[in-house]
Design goal:
The protein has one domain: Arp2/3 complex 21 kDa subunit ARPC3, CATH 1.10.1760. It starts with a helix and ends with a helix. Helix 1 runs antiparallel to helix 2 and helix 1 runs parallel beside helix 3. The chain is about 75% helix and about 0% strand. The protein has about 200 residues and is mainly α.
Length: about 200
């Protein structure tokens, strides 16, 4: 019961962190830490909690956004929720392959590849939804997509860098404190593997 309460409270911390960081970096086009924060939540808490963290973070961040509420654009809000839910769920998947006690260059490359794929998925999903429901004709849709390519490249590059350099450092630090192990149901499997070496 205590662990369930801790999981709920930790999930809430990740949601609050993701939303706060989303607003903090909103003034910088396509530079954001929401994706990494939600992914980290899934990595530590697991697939289901990661999905919930992504879903609620996206809903709160988009619907309460002072620069334009996602509630006014339901298709875009839906795309953002789907995109960030997949990010959180994917963090839970990656934890099956990356041991927090053995973060290596290979681990960092796995994180970087994850950031690359997830950022592309998010950008494609949200851009397609915004364009398809914009009422633009095909020519305008093409022009909007082409104009957004440089920003998407920047978004992808920054997230790859964050996933490669920042996430491993955070995971190493959290693992030293014993924070991750509390929620790491896969730790026994990794411990058994380590003992066989």
């Amino acid at each position: 019961m205590r662990l369930k309460t801790e999981i709920i409270s930790t999930s809430a911390i990740f949601i609050a962190g993701a939303v706060s960081l989303g607003y903090t970096f909103a003034v910088f086009p396509n530079l954001e830490l929401m994706t990494a924060t939600i992914f980290l939540g899934g990595y530590i808490l697991g697939r289901f909690c990661g999905l919930i963290v992504g879903l609620l973070s996206a809903f709160l961040w988009s619907s309460l956004n002072p620069w334009g509420s996602g509630l006014a654009y339901p298709p875009i809000l839906f795309a953002q929720i789907v995109g960030f839910s997949v990010v959180g769920f994917s963090g839970g998947l990656i934890r099956l392959f990356v041991n927090p006690s053995k973060i290596t260059l290979k681990s960092a490359l796995i994180f970087a590849l994850s950031g690359f794929i997830l950022t592309i998925f998010y950008d494609v999903t949200t851009n397609l939804c915004s364009i398809l429901f914009s009422g633009f004709d095909l020519r305008m849709m093409r022009n909007v997509l082409l104009a957004g390519i440089p920003l998407s490249f920047f978004h992808i590059a920054m997230n790859v860098l964050i996933f490669f350099a920042v996430l491993p450092a955070i995971i190493k630090s959290l693992n030293k404190t014993g924070f991750i192990k509390k929620y790491w149901r896969g730790s026994d499997r990794f411990n058994k593997m380590d003992s066989l070496r």
